[in-house]
Design goal:
Elements lengths: L8 H8 L6 E5 L11 E3 L9 H9 L4 E7 L6 H10 L21 E4 L1 H8 L4 E4 L9 E5 L4
Parallel strand pairs: 1-5, 2-5, 3-4
Antiparallel strand pairs: 1-6, 3-6
């Protein structure tokens, strides 16, 4: 039994196979799943698990060097979640003041929602949450811990 961190076996396995520069999509339950990209479907019902909860859990285990979100997420709830974890308003710890201890200091790149869907087709991993909030999707580019 693991002490903590990610408990989902399929997600743990997928994360352990990622390398520098690989893309990981964390998506709401409505974003189309790209053909040929491995999917870890965590969705149970609308809202569970939440986009924020899954993102926070992933950030505890994943080294991230780049973040891309849909420009349509600006000014809506999903955009606030993303900016709180990566943007200048997040207190500089990359965890939105959540005590994750991640000094990411990343700027969120924004593309159209259609471009984000195309970008998801190049990902190494697609994580589907139960989130039912518009534009609660982000593409994370993996970094290295050194």
């Amino acid at each position: 039994m693991k002490r903590g961190g990610l408990l989902n076996a399929q997600l743990n396995e997928a994360i352990s196979r990622l390398g520098h520069g690989d893309l990981v999509v964390v998506a709401d339950c409505g974003l189309p799943q790209p053909i040929g990209v491995p999917v870890v479907d965590l969705a149970v019902v609308h809202g569970l698990p939440s986009f924020a909860g899954v993102l926070d859990a992933l950030l505890g285990d994943l080294v991230v060097e780049g973040v891309t979100a849909a420009s349509e997420s600006r000014g809506v709830a999903a955009g606030e979640v993303i900016e709180a974890r990566f943007g200048a308003g997040g207190g500089g710890d990359g965890g939105g003041g959540l005590g994750l201890g991640l000094e990411l200091g990343l700027e969120v790149a924004h593309v159209s929602h259609e471009e984000l869907k195309r970008l998801s087709g190049t990902a190494r991993l697609f994580v589907r949450t139960g989130e039912a909030t518009p534009f609660a999707n982000v593409v994370l580019r993996c970094g290295v811990p050194f």
